[in-house]
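job 3f2a | input accepted
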Amino acid sequence: MASIRAKLGRIVVRKFFNMNPEGGKSFEEVTMLVSDFGTKVRDGYERIEETTEGGTKYVRVRPIGKKSEKLVLYFHGGGYAAGLSQDYYYHACDFAKAAGDDVECILIDYDLSPEYKYPHQHNQAYDLWTVVVEKLGYKPENIILGGDSAGGNLTLSLCLRLRDEGKALPRALFLLSPWTDMLASGQSYETNYGVDPMFGKKKVVLDEETRERLLKSDMYGWCGDADRKDPLVSPVYGDYAGFPPALFTVGGDEILLDDTWTVAENMKGHGIEVRVIQDEKMFHIYPLYYKMFPESKKAFKKILAYITEKMQ
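job 3f2a | predicted structure (312 res):
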């Protein structure tokens, strides 16, 4: 059963952050609400902005005066339309600290939709990975790669591309509510449509006409004219043979619930070590709200513990 705080949080999310195309706020409006362009990091860390020769912006969040052969690389969410916010710099410090006192976290700062569409951000992720490995000198086996929502999409897509090109993959993955199905085909889109406070519509059943309106909404604008069954666009259609261990977190009331479970089960079928943290009645990327809800705090601690375990 969800905590009282979480129940109240659902009301707040539905009121201020619901993006359903039928009565919710516009996708642009919500992305502006969550865009906090502060640049502070935690004490003992510094923030350095850099750009690859290919034009991909990224931010290095690292402990001052320290250096490690290990790295956490993180791709932020926001539907490809919201940029890096203050919270991500704090999260970067938390992820880095979990990996080791001398470890840094690199955040991609990809160009945003709707101006930039697929495959632009995906090519930027590939560009950054190449720079991290070939220029900065981090070995893939010493990198833990993570992402939330659209960043989870980017994480899986990058790894599919690297695997298919015969290149080494990261040491481990961690994904928070990864957005993997651009056709909204999972059963959870129907079962959770009436209860998801962020993307659904209360007491409404998702029929094919409603699904079509959802798929044509601004939320999917980043896809452009891409084939939505392409695994690099919708990783739910990918094959995960040869992937590293992965941790997933997902809310039980998300329409995106099957976006996680379909990929996780595919990995398990290939013998990949997979863990899934699912908290009932919780919503999209809930672990990132660890200051507000006990379920979020508990899940976020498990993510940090996973990073520590896998980086040993």
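job 3f2a | Residues 294-311 form the longest helix (18 residues).
job 3f2a | closed
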